[in-house]
Write a structure and sequence with these properties.
The chain has 163 residues and is mainly α. 77% of the residues lie in helices and 0% in strands. It folds into two domains: 4-60 and 109-158, no CATH class; 69-105, no CATH class. Bound molecules: zinc ion. The site of zinc ion (ZN) has 5 residues, from helix 6.
Length: 163
C-alpha cells in the first residue's frame, strides 16, 4: 500500500497549520465573521487532506485509486441520468466507458500525476466543480487552492522524505 496513512497524516498537520493562520487572520480582522472562519477552516482541512493523498490515484494498488475507480463512473452515470436526462441504459454505457478510460488512460505511478502541473490542474477542476455546485466564487477558489496545496505537500513528501 503506497503509504496512504503517512500522506494523510502530513495533510492533516499541514491543514492544521492553515487553520491556525486563518484563526490569526480572523483575530486581525481579515476574516470578518466566525462563520466564515469555520467554513474556510472546514474546507481547508477536507481539501488539503484529500490533496495530500490524491497524487497516488496513479498507483493501482492505492486505496484512493480504487475509491475513484468507483466515484468517476458513478459521477458520470449521475450526470448522464440527472443532469442530461438520458435513459438508464445509455447512462450505464457512459459509466462503463468512463471506467475503461479511467483504468486505461491512467499514467504510470509517479509520472504526470505526480507533477506540480497536475496539482494546479486538479485544484482548477475542483474550483470549477464546486463553483457549479455551491455558486460561491471565494469558497470554490479557496478549496481549489487548498487542494493544490495538499497536492504539493504530497509531492514534497515523496521527493524529500522518500516514503
Ligand atoms: Zn506519491
Amino acid at each position: 500500500m503506497p503509504y496512504m496513512k503517512e500522506h494523510i497524516d502530513s495533510g492533516i498537520y499541514a491543514s492544521l497549520g492553515v487553520v491556525l493562520l486563518l484563526a490569526i487572520g480572523h483575530l486581525r480582522g481579515f476574516i470578518p465573521t466566525a462563520n466564515d472562519l469555520f467554513t474556510m477552516s472546514l474546507f481547508a482541512v477536507i481539501m488539503i487532506t484529500l490533496g495530500s493523498d490524491l497524487p497516488d490515484i496513479d498507483s493501482r494498488t492505492a486505496p484512493i485509486h480504487k475509491i475513484f475507480q468507483i466515484l468517476v463512473p458513478g459521477a458520470v452515470i449521475l450526470i448522464s441520468l440527472v443532469m442530461l436526462k438520458l435513459d438508464i441504459m445509455l447512462s450505464l454505457v457512459h459509466g462503463i466507458v468512463a471506467l475503461v478510460f479511467y483504468t486505461k488512460l491512467m499514467p504510470g505511478h509517479r509520472q504526470f500525476v505526480h507533477t506540480m502541473r497536475a496539482g494546479i490542474l486538479s485544484g482548477g477542476i475542483v474550483a470549477i466543480l464546486l463553483h457549479s455546485v455551491f455558486g460561491s466564487l471565494v469558497l470554490s477558489v479557496w478549496s481549489g487552492f487548498c487542494l493544490t496545496f495538499g497536492y504539493f505537500v504530497h509531492l514534497a513528501k515523496d521527493r524529500w522524505v522518500r516514503i
